[in-house]
Amino acid sequence: MGAIAIHFYPNPKLQTMLLPRKATHLVCKAKEVAHIILSPTIRCSAANVSRTMVTMNKDGIGVDPHELEPIFEQKRSLRSKVRKALKTMDPFQRSQEDDAIQNTVVESLWFKASKSVCAYISSPALLEVDTSKIISEVLCSPAEERKKLYVPRVEDRNSNMKMLMISSVDDLIEKSMNILEPALVDSDGIQREDVMQSSDPVDLFILPGLAFDKSGSRLGRSGGYYDLFLKNYQELTKMKRWKQPLLIALSYSVQIIEEGAIPVTPFDIPVDALVSPAGFIPISAAALRRCE
Fold it and tell me: pLDDT tens across 146-159, in order?
């Protein structure tokens, strides 16, 4: 087996994003299967269906909880298979794919043209595609050319997540499972800008996931955090009459599966495009226009 390519960054926090960490991952049936059935008259955040069953979908149409249970079971089975495939990936192949994916992103016109980006901080414990080069590309740009960068902070176990602006990797702190997240306030005690309160729209979301297909379906890790956040942000952009952001998911080759193999519910948010080791894979009309 060839030597593993490891990139070193001046800031140790960026380097830690590449290093494996021991993680415990608790999978709770309550995350996906209903144990509370709410009245149809109660409006509930759609993405929270993975934690507490609701009887209304995102369009206000009734959903039978019993019809969703087989979908949740299929999702659990698929997650197990994809996790096994990720765990058995050759480290050298993983490193090569990380490089190829990140190079595609930072060299793309749609990334270069973006003024405001929401991106995840990759976690080796979760076997996510590395984003350290992408984060570094933004944060190391000259101040006058720098994009706004918002990164996720999990608020609770009820699928609530914020995207807060950072200007340095020093703004990140380790939380559960050694995952790096932004502190609520900066070194001066000033509250960080929340993307939901920003006066400017986000151009681009760079998203993680467990599995994807070429129709745009995305399988998350069962928490519902991104589906809920994206739903809320899309509603905000409609209210403010902003252009919808481009939703780009990063995927290892083993995470792209046969089209139609990912079971979906009315609460799942599809992506506009994938970036894999093979390159940019546009899916939606918005993504196809970015290729023109």
Answer: 999 999 999 988 88
